[in-house]
Known about the structure:
Layout: E1 2-4, E2 12-14, E3 17-19, E4 21-23, E5 29-32, E6 35-38, E7 76-80, E8 89-91, E9 96-101, E10 105-112, E11 115-123, E12 128-129, E13 132-133, E14 139-140, E15 146-149, E16 152-158
Antiparallel strand pairs: 1-4, 2-3, 2-5, 5-6, 7-8, 7-16, 9-10, 10-11, 11-14, 12-13, 12-15, 15-16
Amino acid sequence: MFIEDLGSTNGTYIDGKAVKKHQLQNKEVVEIGKYRIQFFADRADQNYEKTMLVRPGMNALGAAVKSAPAAAAGKALLKVLTGAAAGREVPLVKVVTTVGKPGTAVAAITKRPQGYVIALIEGSQAPTLNGSAISSEPVALRNNDTLDLAGTRMQFIEE
């Protein structure tokens, strides 16, 4: 079974990695917008219904699951430091915010319970975070990090 992102603004993620098209494997976690879905391949032991609702705090078999509470990500914004939009502040209010210039470099900033992460979506120019190139693997953002992307420098500010 395949999943394909047809150019959505939020992106599609498999186990935290942005994908355009991906063949799903058993137990991979699919993230689309604010939703997280775990994929289960058909298995010989039919412990699972074809479609089922799994409530927070419960596993697929209905047993309670204890998890450590994650620190909630606070409010954040990008402050544009250079370029035509210098001085502009972009609040990060959506679960996923994309920044950059299509064809050159596009990155996605994703709000997660543990904080914000950034990953390269597409582009021929590698964006940098504090001087180090970023890839399609998500990298945690920290207050005052500097992002250089498509000829523009931005600062990540978490309140």
